[in-house]
Design brief:
By secondary structure, this protein is mainly alpha-helical. The chain has one domain (10-36, 51-81). Helices cover 61% and strands 0% of the residues. The protein has helices spanning 10-19, 26-35, 52-81.
Length: 82
């Protein structure tokens, strides 16, 4: 097997080590993480540090996007029936 040195920060190294399973090499960790699809569970707690004000603003943004999508769909239905 060919070996190469990959420069990384201490934080990056610590992150890799934290994902390492028993008996797994760091190369195996990199390959495992690179090959998988992210799970929604990984996003749990992602909003923990976000203020209530910013959460409300984001929710309003999403709601407005839903309204615009519904309006656009209604216009398209109306146009297709004419």
């Amino acid at each position: 097997m060919t070996r190469r040195t990959v420069p990384r920060s201490k934080d990056a190294y610590d992150a890799l080590v934290s994902w390492k399973r028993e008996g797994e090499s760091l190369s195996e960790v990199v390959l495992r993480l690179a090959a998988r699809e992210p799970s929604l569970v990984e996003f749990a707690g992602a909003w923990k540090g976000v203020s209530q004000e910013k959460r409300k603003a984001f929710a309003a943004f999403l709601e407005r996007g839903d309204e615009l999508s519904k309006e656009a769909a209604a216009r398209e239905r109306k146009r297709s029936t004419q």
